[in-house]
Amino acid sequence: SQELEQSPQSLIVQEGKNLTINCTSSKTLYGLYWYKQKYGEGLIFLMMLQKGGEEKSHEKITAKLDEKKQQSSLHITASQPSHAGIYLCGADGSGNTGKLIFGQGTTLQVKP
Amino acid sequence: DADVTQTPRNRITKTGKRIMLECSQTKGHDRMYWYRQDPGLGLQLIYYSFDVKDINKGEISDGYSVSRQAQAKFSLSLESAIPNQTALYFCATSDAGTREFFGPGTRLTVL
Question: Which of A12, A21, A48, B46 has the smallest set of CB atoms within 10 Å of its CB?
Answer without folding.
Answer: A12
